[in-house]
Write a structure and sequence with these properties.
Layout: H1 2-39, E1 44-47, H2 57-68, E2 76-88, E3 94-103, E4 123-127, H3 128-135, E5 144-147, E6 150-158, E7 164-168, E8 177-180, H4 187-198, E9 203-204, H5 216-219, H6 227-246, H7 251-278, H8 282-285
Parallel strand pairs: 3-7, 4-6
Antiparallel strand pairs: 1-8, 1-9, 2-3, 2-5, 2-8, 4-7, 5-6
Helix pairs in contact: 1-7
Length: about 290
């Protein structure tokens, strides 16, 4: 009887340790994935609800010249996105992909992997899945693809987003997205100053794919008793949210949101397992 009781106690202890180990693994994975998503998210995203009154290549160049004269100039990349057909150069295979046309370097937009340098009109970056669809391999650096009647040499393959083609935009391209190189500090304030400097009507989206829905600091007037200020700030906030709802999420936002949702889910699972184990409910879960 004592041996049996000892074996049962050992089994329960091992079960509890297994639950604790699983909880720690989920927690560590969740935290690591969240930090990785933040690090791979690029800069602060600005986006326009309409493609009217957005800069073309000449307008972006003027913005760079004006920004260079500021006390604290910001690096940025202007870009646009459309779903288009991409073909292997031999024309045998084709696929639909998010084609991103950039004005500037890709480093602010995609701060990982190979960089498409500013002015490289013959090169491109390609997503892993797009590469495998067109060439049955992801080792395609140096091969060529065709899009919009032009040929591009693959400079590098991106692990994410997977269905993607990044190329240099043309002179007449309307750039309805801008990614700012802002790291630390009050990112939203810096972005709003950038918009005001260049007279742009764009919305400041959140980093890493999560769009802004509510911030108490945006609603606070100069004084708590300033009821007109509360009303005015709330109306401005509501209009901003309304404008954001008109903007179609970019491929980068969708990718970042998916990654972060998975990370948050893993972290939540780890937290629940830890609570179960801590309260001794892990035994009931395993019916021991």
């Amino acid at each position: 009887m004592r041996r049996r009781d000892g074996a049962d106690a050992l089994l329960r202890t091992m079960s509890r340790l297994c639950v604790l180990l699983a909880a720690v693994c989920f927690l560590v994975y969740g935290l690591t994935a969240i930090r990785t998503a933040d690090a791979r998210s690029g800069g602060v995203l600005l986006a326009a609800a309409e493609r009217e009154n957005v800069p073309d290549a000449a307008g972006v160049e003027r913005m760079r010249e004006e920004e260079a004269q500021c006390e604290e100039p910001l690096g940025f990349t202007a870009w646009s996105q459309r779903e288009e057909t991409v073909m292997a150069l031999d024309g045998c295979r084709r696929t639909q992909a998010a084609v991103v046309r950039i004005c500037g370097s890709s480093e602010y937009l995609i701060p990982y992997g190979k960089i498409l340098q500013e002015g490289d009109e013959e090169g491109c970056l390609i997503g892993r899945k797009t590469a495998e669809t067109l060439f049955k391999s992801h080792n395609v650096t140096g091969l060529s693809v065709s899009c919009g009647g032009r040929e591009y040499v693959v400079r590098g393959v991106l692990s994410a987003p997977e269905e993607l083609l990044v190329i240099a935009g043309e002179e007449t391209e309307a750039y309805d997205h801008i990614t700012l190189d802002i790291r630390g500090g009050n990112e939203r304030t810096a972005a709003e100053k950038f918009l005001a400097r260049h007279g742009l009507s764009m919305q400041c989206m959140n980093r890493a794919g999560f769009r802004k829905t509510f911030s108490l600091t945006e609603l606070l007037p100069g004084s708590w008793s300033d009821f007109a200020g509360w009303k005015q700030n709330f109306a401005a906030w509501r209009e901003g949210v309304r404008q954001q709802e008109k903007i179609v999420p970019s491929v980068f936002e969708l990718e970042a949101e998916e990654k972060k949702n998975m990370a948050v889910g893993a972290f939540a699972t780890g937290a629940l397992l830890f609570i179960y184990s801590s309260l001794g409910l892990g035994f009931r879960f395993f019916k021991i």
